[in-house]
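Help needed: design a sequence for this.
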C-alpha cells in the first residue's frame, strides 16, 4: 500500500474497527479490487485513494483537465469496475489470498462509492454526484479525516452516506447553494438532527459552517457525552483481538463469533453512549449483579458481574439463563446478547464471556424453563415485569 492508502486504511480501522475493514482485496485475475473495502451487511463501501499533485502550467483550465483525468476519473473507473466485479461473486477474496466474508445477495447489497483524492486541496474543485453508473462521494484529505472521525461507527457513517445520496437523488440539491466543503455539508446535517432539511425555496451553505458547529455548545456537550462510549469500542476490539489470536476458550467458531461482534459494532455512537453508561453504572454498583438493557437498535443486552472465584462454566450457564428470561419478557425482539465479567473489586485483570441468543419465538418448554429459573434462583425477579 502507498502511504496515502495506508493512512486511509488505518483511519478506517480506527473509525469502524478492525472487524469491518479490508485493505486491497483481490478482484478479477487477482488484481487489486480497490484500496479499502468496508463491509457491514448489507452495506459495502468501496474506497479508491489517489494522491496526485496538480500541475502548474499557468493555465488553470489545462491543469484542471489533467488533474481530473489522473485523480478523479481513474478513481471513478476503479470504483465502478470494483462494483461490477463484486456483482459476479458471492465471497470476498482478501489481499493475502484468503477467503473473506460471504457477501449478501446482489439484490440486497447497498453500495457506497468513495473517491479520496489527495494533493489538490484548496487548489482544485471536487467533482461528485451520479457520474454515470451510480453516486460517488469525493473527499480530500481534510474532509476524509473530519468525516471518519465524526461519524466513527459503521451505522453513523452509512447513515450519512445514504441520506446524502437520497437527498441528491430527490432533486432537492438544486435548491442548495453550496459554497463550502464536505465538512460544511456535514455540519448542516448534524445541526439538523442528522437530516438534510431545507427551509424555503433556497438555502445557502457558506464556507466556515463546520468551524461554527465545532464551537457550538451542542457539539461541546456531545464530545463530553461520547467519552464513556469508548468502553463499548474497547470491548469489541478486545474480543476481536482474542479471537484472532486464538485466545477464545470456545475455539474458533468464526460464523457465530462474527455475528456477535458485528451486532455489537452496528450500534450507533448514541446507542453506545447509553449502553456504556448502563454497563458502567451497574459495574460500579455493589448491589447490582445483572441488568437487562434495551437498545434503540432492537437488541437487548444482559450485563452480568460475578465474583472472581466463580467458575467460568457456572458464569456462562447463568448468563445464558438470564438471556432466556430477558428474551421471554421482551417478545417484540428476537436477539439477546449477554456480556459477563468480574465485579469491580479493585483488582487488576478481567475476562469476558459473551452469549448470543437468537430466538424469533420461544417454545413452550423454553417459556417454562425461564419461569423456573426466576422461581429457583430469583434471576431478574425484581426487574422483569410479570
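Sure. Designed sequence:
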Amino acid at each position: 500500500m502507498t502511504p496515502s492508502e495506508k493512512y486511509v486504511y488505518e483511519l478506517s480501522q480506527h473509525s469502524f474497527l478492525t472487524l469491518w475493514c479490508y485493505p486491497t482485496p483481490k478482484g478479477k485475475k487477482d488484481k487489486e479490487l480497490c484500496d479499502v473495502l468496508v463491509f457491514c451487511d448489507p452495506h459495502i463501501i468501496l474506497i479508491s485513494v489517489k494522491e496526485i499533485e496538480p500541475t502548474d502550467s499557468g493555465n488553470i483550465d489545462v491543469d484542471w483537465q489533467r488533474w481530473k483525468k489522473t485523480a478523479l476519473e481513474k478513481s471513478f473507473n476503479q470504483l465502478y469496475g470494483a462494483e461490477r466485479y463484486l456483482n459476479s461473486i458471492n465471497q470476498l477474496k482478501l489481499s493475502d489470498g484468503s477467503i473473506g466474508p460471504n457477501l449478501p445477495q446482489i439484490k440486497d447489497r447497498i453500495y457506497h462509492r468513495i473517491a479520496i483524492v489527495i494533493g489538490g486541496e484548496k487548489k482544485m474543485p471536487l467533482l461528485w454526484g451520479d457520474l454515470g453508473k451510480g453516486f460517488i462521494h469525493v473527499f480530500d484529505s481534510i474532509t476524509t479525516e473530519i468525516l471518519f472521525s465524526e461519524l466513527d461507527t459503521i451505522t453513523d457513517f452509512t447513515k450519512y452516506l445514504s441520506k446524502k445520496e437520497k437527498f441528491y437523488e430527490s432533486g432537492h440539491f438544486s435548491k442548495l447553494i453550496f459554497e463550502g466543503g464536505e465538512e460544511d455539508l456535514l455540519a448542516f446535517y448534524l445541526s439538523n438532527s442528522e437530516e438534510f432539511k431545507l427551509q424555503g425555496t433556497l438555502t445557502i451553505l457558506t464556507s466556515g459552517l463546520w468551524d461554527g458547529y465545532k464551537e457550538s455548545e451542542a457539539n461541546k456537550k456531545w464530545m463530553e457525552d461520547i467519552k464513556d462510549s469508548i468502553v463499548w469500542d474497547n470491548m469489541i476490539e478486545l474480543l476481536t483481538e482474542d479471537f484472532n489470536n486464538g485466545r477464545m476458550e470456545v475455539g474458533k467458531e468464526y460464523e457465530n463469533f462474527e455475528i456477535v461482534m458485528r451486532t455489537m459494532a452496528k450500534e450507533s455512537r448514541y446507542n453506545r453512549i447509553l449502553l456504556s453508561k448502563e454497563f458502567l453504572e451497574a459495574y460500579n454498583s455493589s448491589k447490582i449483579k445483572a441488568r437487562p438493557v434495551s437498545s434503540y437498535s432492537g437488541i437487548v443486552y444482559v450485563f452480568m458481574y460475578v465474583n472472581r472465584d466463580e467458575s467460568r462454566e457456572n458464569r456462562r450457564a447463568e448468563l445464558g439463563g438470564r438471556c432466556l428470561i430477558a428474551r421471554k419478557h421482551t417478545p417484540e425482539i428476537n436477539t439477546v446478547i449477554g456480556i459477563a465479567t468480574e465485579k469491580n473489586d479493585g483488582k487488576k485483570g478481567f475476562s469476558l464471556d459473551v452469549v448470543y441468543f437468537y430466538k424469533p419465538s420461544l417454545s413452550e418448554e423454553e417459556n417454562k424453563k425461564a419461569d423456573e429459573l426466576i422461581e429457583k434462583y430469583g434471576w431478574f425477579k425484581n426487574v422483569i415485569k410479570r
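The first helix runs from residue 3 to 16.
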